Amino acid sequence: MKGTQDHATLAEVFNRDEDRVDWHDGALWWIRQKRDRSANLTPQWEELREAASAIKSNVISNLHDYLLQFEENLKKNGVKVYWASDAEEHNQIIHKILSDKNINQMVKSKSMLTEECHLNEYLADRGIDVINSDLGEYIQQIDNEPPSHIVLPCIHKKKEEIGELFHEHLGTEKGLSDPTLLTRVARNHLRNVFMTRRAALTGVNFAVAETGEYVVCTNEGNADMGAHLCEVQIASMGLEKIIPERKHLGVFLRLLARSAIGQPITIYSSHFRKPRPGQEMHLILVDKGRS
Amino acid sequence: MKKNMKIGLFIPCYVNQLYPNAAIATLELLQKFGAEVSYPSKQTCCGQPMANSGYEHLTQSCNDLFIENFSGFDYVVAPSASCVLHIKDHLHSHADENAASAIRGKIFELVEFLTDVLKIDTLDAYFPHKVGIHQSCHGLRGLHLAQMSELVAPDFSKPKQLLNMVKGLEITELDRADECCGFGGLFCIAEEAVSVKMGKDRITDHTNHGAEYITSPDLSCLMHMEGILQRNNSKVKIIHIAEILNSSSIKV
């Protein structure tokens, strides 16, 4: 994996190409402006933010109880629950789930936590291949680079560079830079991945203690494609993703995508609750310095 | 204004050493409004650099000295948002917490002292230049000297309120009203490349809109930007807001 030097050293290298830095800065500021416009169009925006903050404060003050309530409801719904205190334990649990089923390929989506735990490398060392199915992270994975931004993983790449990567790794024609065409290429490759993977892992945006369900928000529908086609569904979540009741989702879903990129709501807000007949669901609660 | 208001003038160490004109302007400005201003001569650094680097537990002697120097005043005023914020948030005492708490409640950054305590509405000042306002992060987010641009809330700016009273002065609008300049205390050493680029970007926003001067309630940000301006032989100058507010109408 590229990018193992410290931030200051890498930033010095990045800043040598000032035109590129200005372009990158402009791209991020454009997102900020979209966020501001969206916030200003939403009635009682600051009250919503305050409500979200108050709900999270409540969660942190009562984390123990909510987590146990969530675990109890997950179990009632037929989901297997695991607790991991650190990255090593988290990665071991996933490895065990997969190796018990003789699975050596997994599709992943929407999980910064597994990036934090370096799951891909851990599984690759043990002969298990992981494909990131979010478009941005897919591009980053092809280039053997970690995401550069938490919600915009390849915001630092230009479309021409993505065309070049696809030419090199996916065999597309040289010089392709049309975003729609590039997306179609990725989609065709990923479609085959979704159809053939027996295991799918997603992150968790919100975990509802009251019901034992978890919610994953995506724009690409890739979390759903993975989860709906696999026989082993795994979710990794940080302890802090808990919210007390389903009604609180109304606050967070209105804020999430607007705050991130100025979009009113993500295209998919998918609720996962219990395994389909014949399917297994596993959920790992990860501490890793959070408690 | 309260009669015979006694003000302790707190001049941050780097202002004392590198920008004495800003300190003198602060003193003169407060005196113009009839305050009785004293400068406790034993004052030193307030301890902010240590506290910000994770050594707050070693700042007790700075705190004790600050309390000793400034307990006897109605108000403590300083021309630096970041040092004021440090005292406001972190001044404590094992020996006399009441004294520490009293100072935390009566220390003001110069701009907010003029707008919120003295509540001035006119100024006899003349500064015929185009001036861009740099909102320091400590002033903006810590002391709320202006509205944060990401909030959906009524706009206000205490520095702008004062600069609007200065004759001849034209405020230059910016594309990004309150971006950080990248100084960040020790950040400029730990992350030099990012720090410099952020400073350059801030300056470009001001120069693109024709600013001749960049002003701020925080000299540390201005010091960072001055370094970049001078390396690039720019004609644009930095100036502490106290010097503008104290600029005499006799100068033409």
What does this structure look like?
By secondary structure, chain A is an alpha/beta fold. In chain A, the strands form two sheets. A six-stranded parallel β-sheet of chain A has the order 1-10-7-4-2-3, sandwiched between helices. A four-stranded mixed β-sheet of chain A has the order 8-5-6-9. The longest helix of chain A is centred in the N-terminal third of the chain and has 23 residues. The mean pLDDT of chain A is 95. Chain A is globular, with a radius of gyration of 20 Å. Chain A has a domain of 184 residues: NagB/RpiA/CoA transferase-like (Rossmann fold). Chain A contains twelve helices and ten strands. With 252 residues, chain B is of the alpha/beta class. Chain B has two domains: 112 residues, no CATH class; 116 residues, Rossmann fold (3-Layer(aba) Sandwich), CATH 3.40.50. In chain B, the strands form two sheets. In chain B, strands 2-1-3-4 form a four-stranded parallel β-sheet, sandwiched between helices. In chain B, strands 6-5-7-8 form a four-stranded parallel β-sheet. In chain B, helix 12 links the parallel strand 7 and strand 8. In chain B, helix 11 packs across helix 12. The two termini of chain B are 30 Å apart.
Key words describing this protein structure:
heterodimer; A: 291 residues; alpha/beta; Rossmann fold; 6-stranded parallel β-sheet; 4-stranded mixed β-sheet; 12 helices; globular; B: 252 residues; 2 domains; 4-stranded parallel β-sheet; 13 helices; 8 strands; 45% helix
Biggest sheet character of chain A: 6 strands, parallel
Number of strands of chain B: 8
Secondary structure category of chain A: alpha/beta
Instruction: Output the radius of gyration of chain B.
Output: 18 Å
The major pleated sheet of chain B works out as: 4 strands, parallel
